[in-house]
Amino acid sequence: MAWLTEHHHAEIRSLLQTNATTTVSIKALLNDSRETILERLATLDKMMATVAAGIASYRDLALVAYPSSELSGQAYAILEQFYDSGATSILEVKCLSGEMELAYMDAPSNGSISYTETRFVGDDLTTLVSLGLLDLERNDKGARIFKFKRAAAALVEQRRGA
After folding, report:
1. For a FRET experiment, which of 9, 13, 38, 159 has its CA 20 to 30 Å from that of 111?
2. Could you tell me which of 96, 100, 101, 89 has the C-alpha nearest to residue 138?
3. Domain 73-160 fold
């Protein structure tokens, strides 16, 4: 707070003092090492660029900052099918053949998500979870359950111009 006062940032200092939660969070963040703070900010920056790359009006800017930040077409297809199904959850079912099915758990009608790149579907799901677009839980048998989140719905709607 002293630094803000010394550098004539009274307005920011006042805002911080009025919001105790913000102050506690910032103090906790500032207690971390500089490297840790920079790592977290870089991760946040990359996550935002990845989501922005999926929105037409931000795509070019996001790809300039992070050329590899775009989600795969299959990852977008997974989100779009999830959205269209009306389901809130999908269950990862590993078949005896070695194939994996992503079955809707609570959709108005039975079905599953289709995908073409079997080799990368696990990576796409992991990426969607790491970006906060899907939540990951496990059932009592240890099978993965993916939950659709509001952020995923907003991204699908944004891409469709809804």
Report:
1. 159
2. 89
3. Arc Repressor Mutant, subunit A (1.10.10)
